[in-house]
Amino acid sequence: MDAARLPAAQDVRAAAERIAGRIKRTPLVHAEKLSAFTGADIWLKLENLQYTGAFKERGALNKLLVMSEEDKKRGVIAASAGNHAQGVARHAGALGVPAVIVMPVTTPDVKVRQTRALGAEVVLTGHDFDEAKVEAAKIEKERGLTFVHPFDDADVIAGQGTIALEMLEDGPDFDAMIVPIGGGGLIAGMALATKDAAPDTQVVGVQTALFPSMLNAIDGGHRDTGGSTLAEGIAVKDAGALTREIVRETVDDIVLVDERILERALSMLMMEQKLLVEGAGAAGLAAILADPARFKDKTVGLVLCGGNIDARLLSMILMRDLARSGRLARLRVQLLDMPGQLVRVASIIAENDGNVTDVGHHRTYSDLPAKMTCMDVTVDTQGEEHLGRIIQNLRKEGYEVEIASY
Q1: CATH topology of 9-55+155-319 equal to that of 326-403?
Q2: CATH T-level topology, domain 9-55+155-319
Q3: Strands, E, within 41-110: which ranges?
Q4: Fewer Cβ atoms within 10 A, N terminus or C terminus of the chain?
Q5: Which CATH fold topology does 326-403 show?
Q6: For 160-215, what is each residue's pLDDT tens digit?
């Protein structure tokens, strides 16, 4: 297929036959807890369980399989610092196709090592994706390689669309599928397959509010694009040329979600469903949490498109979610600077079934009177009601208490 031609539903079906047995057919699971919480009947497609932790393998593999033997011998090149890099590297290595992956010098070392371990030659250059892409184009021309675009390629789009075919085969009749959008390769392929096989199923795209590039492309808007987002996998400044045409014709709606809802969705998937996802993978659930009335009593399919998240970032998100729900709180307590006060405050918290996990005592750096001091106490609680009871009893004993902001 001409990579610059718009793919069709039959191309997705052909891709499904082509990659069968070479790619993991990931589970589609009923999310009973999330369904009960949101009022929607939620089904989750677990693409975070692919070998490289993301759906990108599908499009990369389909692209590699349709290449001529001559092009395979010369090799492929991609510019990526994320899931696309590993998808291309893994399947190029398995097929014996030389692969060059151009990554920005800012790419975390673990991703560089993982990509090299999959057999690819890694070229580190530039400080962002755009600079890496320029170098990739230069190497492509010099060596006669085939460029594997992360989303704006007909074969890549067709490969990504195989997710929808599996969901339609394995699941119930869906009222809607909610799909994350970055450059648009995933939703374009899935929408082609869905509207062909189940035309009454709505296809709803979701983008982070910081990167509304596809929505801008579709409605001609001029929303600001850029910023630090949890969903870096869909943080794309410019939607694809091919993908926007498909999205315009096949996608029913695009919604935007903010960072706080993304954090909550990621935490819920981890805590309630025991599923590890990256920010982009939580976007579908975030769309439901942002507008539960729209999806109430609807059967909805969500794609957990990836699970590659930094452990420290995950830890921070989970702790922030505990704080927002009142299950973890930092209290600032004013008290007289005299023996026994710290013990008394801790005793009151313990008597009310709270667990003190951290204590900070401040004498010097305070604007309180000289005979007063304050302590910061981090308390593990059962929720907002329990936290309120602890604070009430501290105040009843004469202590001034404030909840630190998060």
Answers
A1: no
A2: Rossmann fold (3.40.50)
A3: 41-46, 76-79, 99-103
A4: C
A5: Alpha-Beta Plaits (3.30.70)
A6: 999 999 999 999 999 999 999 999 999 999 999 999 999 999 999 999 999 999 99
